[in-house]
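Reviewers of the previous submission asked for a worked example of the structure-prediction workflow described in the proposal, so we include one complete record here. The input consisted solely of the amino acid sequence. No template or homolog information was supplied to the procedure at any stage.
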Amino acid sequence: MNEQTERKKNPPRFFLPAAPLAVAVALLAAAAAGWQWFDGRAAGDQRAAIAEKIARQENALAALHESQARLDAESLSASQWRAEMDALRAEAAAQAAEARRETEALAAAVERLSLEAQSGRELLLLDEVEHLLHFAARRVALAADPDAAQAALEIAEGRLRASGDAGLYEARRLVAETLAQLRAARRTDYGALAIELGALALTVDGLPLKHDFRPPADGKTSPPPPPPAAGGEKSWWSAARWRAAWRAFSAELGADLKDLIRIRKHESAPGVLLAPEQRYFLVENIRLLLLGAQQAVLRERPQAARQNLAHCESLLRDYFYLPDAAVQATLAAIARIHAATGVAPDYPLPDAAIAELRRLRAERGGAQARR
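From that input alone, the workflow returned the following structure tokens.
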């Protein structure tokens, strides 16, 4: 570069014939300079490219180191996470084992409770049916009420049938037999008897007393007065009419005088004479006895009804005129009702079914206690 500058300042002097050579040298120098410039530029570009590539590699290396560091950190966190996961997995396995044990214990408890509940339901069913049978026995034995007893036996038989338990077959058979016997037993129609007693109470007031009838002592009645003459004596003071009237008066007076003292023979003690105002109380007493018997029949208390009817019959025989047809009909009706209430039907009792239920209850209760 210095030489070229000096040559520009002090150009050489050549002779004209040497000019082509100089031109060629100059061209060669220019070409060399151009090549050098181009080569230097290419080398600079190459260096720049290399430097850029190195920078990129350094950046990639730095990124790689950063990635490596991140991976190391992540690997460390992954190890920690893995350790935590292992711990959680172990804890979950322990909890699962504990839950499995609790589930098995709960299943065993549920099965035990189910068996106890089933056994409890069976014992409750036996108690319920036994209570119904006791109720039926009390209604039959104490109150003579076959309808209520039949209803209780039907409910008991239905409960045994609905249970579907084959072990209750014998108890169900005994209940069904008792129910069939009760349905076939003869029953007293207490409703009809109560209606008849009510009708009798309304007819007592018309019955005649004993002392309403006074037949003559000799059993003969006084002759009636003769009829008036058809002709001839038309005057009322005629001798014939006076004689007939006097004879009738004398006969009636004699009968009244004989009735002042009367001697009679009675096989039993005669009834007490009643004043006219006491008839009302006698009739009301008999009516109250009949109504009391009616209430006793409606309440199915035959013993009380029989006592009232017996007292009523005694009063009728003591104070009322027995040959009268109405009195005889009333006494016959009272005797018929007395006989109807005195019949004690042979109603069956569910004793065998109760014994079978108690046996089943003792057997199943013992099995439950052993469990």
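Residues 119-187+348-370 form one domain. We consider this example representative of the routine output the project will generate in years two and three.
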